[in-house]
Amino acid sequence: MALPEHDVADLGLAQAGVRRVEWAARAMPALRQVHDRFAAERPLDGVRIAACMHVTAETANLLRALRAGGAEIALAASNPLSTQDDTAAALVAEYGITVHARAGMDAESYDRNLLAVLQHRPHMLLDDGCDLVNIASLERPELLAETFGGCEQTTTGVIRLRQMRAEGVLTLPMVAVNDTATKRMFDNRYGTGQSTIDGIMRATNAMLAGRTVVVAGFGYCGRGLAERARGMGARVIVTEVDPVKALDAVMQGYTVLPMDEAAPIGDVVVTVTGNRDVIRAEHIASLKDGAVLANSGHFDVEIDLHALEALAVEVRHEVRPQADEYVLADGRRIVLLAEGRLVNLGAAEGHPAAVMDLSFSVQALTTVWLARHRDTLTPGVLEVPADIDTEVARLELAALGVGIDHLTPDQEEYLHSWHV
Questions:
Q1: What InterPro entries has UniProt attached to this entry (predicted)?
Q2: Is 220 annotated as a binding residue?
């Protein structure tokens, strides 16, 4: 059988990739049920999908479900440090999916791969950080001539889409998969919290108990990270620009400080904001010797890398895997993890499969919803239908063997009536 179009590192890694994908599938029972339903119903027959996503075993299981439903898929990597070359090989050789992804590719290759999957003239986009929508809108809008919609799975991507909509340049209906209750709770809070700590510990082998961890940003991701760090015995300081989130952190018992005051006392400083230049030159100049800098926001702009390089008199690359040491003029050493990119994917393996089970089940069902309603949707940023989120939660509870109560008819009536 002819292989699909591909640009991967080594097809000889395919069997190792299959083992990795199948291992992840064991922890994804909700998505497995979705896969089986799609295989029986074929709701995506003839639908071409272009995806920009992290090329991991968990993503592979989402794409297997969509493929079982009849979709034709072309995948590009959304982050050069997160690509698992064995998973990429398995997707091509074993699962029949077009893949353009190699670990460690440069920015030019990244853009080339995005354009390569768009050349398939997709009906639908699965985006991560709005990169597919962005590059197509700016460079090749004609490639979206047959596109009827898509999904965006990150906070940063949703922000960018809303900005595009406000400026009148978003031409597609895009569903904010990131904004569902299950996604925020599991993926952002529990997933980012655990996987960020995992990445920091793999890259540094550092003990967190008794150390000071600065968490920049107290959204869902920052909240999860702060909880996990505190659970490891760290003293946690939160920095914020939003007074409501800052107050929330205070009421949860965290110390809240401006970054100017937090940076000099942090042993580990992690950005989780989705914004740029959170750690700037003045903060870097105040860091203690041996301080660790990491980012778990979407893009590598939260730490001012140009300022870090300018302040350093020497850079020692790979003092440990995914850890670079910057030596300042006075001899202080600052350790940057994963090149300032996502530390949970660059230095670890991203969210546990059990977390992605819910997020990708929502994404799979939303993809079918988009296909079925393609003729009635208008350009903009749309919400995931509430019944999809609820259905995925029920699937997960059933897989875990957990039962819950149900409203009685009288309770239903009471909740929907203004009568006492």
A1: Adenosylhomocyst_ase-like_sf, Adenosylhomocysteinase-like, Ado_hCys_hydrolase_NAD-bd, NAD(P)-bd_dom_sf, S-Ado-L-homoCys_hydrolase_CS
A2: yes
